[in-house]
Design goal:
Elements: H1 2-11, H2 22-49, E1 63-67, E2 75-81, E3 84-91, E4 94-99, E5 110-112, E6 117-120, E7 125-127, E8 134-136, E9 145-151, E10 154-158
Antiparallel strand pairs: 1-10, 2-3, 3-4, 4-9, 5-6, 6-7, 7-8, 9-10
Amino acid sequence: MNTIDNHEAMLQPPEEKKEPTRRQVLKYLLGFSAVSTFIGVFTPIFSYLIPPPAGSGTGGDRVLVGTLEDIPVGDGKIVPVGHKPVVVTHTDQGVKAFSAICTHLGCIVIWDKTRNLIVCPCHDGLFNPVTGAVVSGPPPAPLPTMSVTVDNGNIYVGEA
């Protein structure tokens, strides 16, 4: 009897493909929407919490940050060097560069041309534009020095 049942099953035409029901289509769309929303919301959060690996700044190479015409004597400028902001000042003593991250709470400092000082806008920390030393305010340490070279009027900054 077993062989007869198998033979009859082979003679029957194959089952036709069934069209998906409305409920199945809606379940698929709802699942796709939920997954898309999850990815859209959590991708930026994960990207922020787990940033891409970065080197120690410039990797020892020097970076062109401007020219002597861009930063005349008595002026300063905040420039990106690698993944770090750097403040470049041009004083009577020459061109100097310091990390633009305040040593107090990590705010980005700015150049104040009217006071001729590097200023942290968060808590009014003041830094000397020639040495990076703290002039006044709460910062506990001077700004870290960056190496500066001037070559044919071009200003290059690298790690100290």
